[in-house]
Amino acid sequence: QVMLVESGGGLVQAEGSLRLSCAASGRTVSSVIMAWFRQAPGKERDFVAAITRSGVSTHYTASVKGRFTISRDNAKNTVYLQMNSLKPEDTAVYYCAADTASLVTTDPRRVDYWGQGTQVTVSS
Description:
Blueprint: E1 3-7, E2 10-13, E3 18-25, E4 33-39, E5 46-51, E6 58-60, E7 68-73, E8 78-83, E9 92-99, E10 113-114, E11 118-123
Parallel strand pairs: 2-11
Antiparallel strand pairs: 1-3, 3-8, 4-5, 4-9, 5-6, 7-8, 9-10, 9-11
């Protein structure tokens, strides 16, 4: 029903920046909660950031606050994750997510739709 396609991942040096994009189809991004999760090898999928339907409120996990910014372009039906001051510990597969719930969740088990993931590797 909802298709999410991530892009923008790659290899970057520590302290560098990347911008991930998530192009959505099937639903407008303003009609769902949009979020980013990430999963490092051997670890669980963890919440990174979310933006509410209104676009007014954003939420971040503590480790990325001040470095990452989630944003949305309604005209392009696309959500972005601007990642600055990247650290090697940010290395993971990053997944775009869409949720029809009324409240933001940090639990990946509650997410309705997932993108295919894009690899982000930060070297020292």
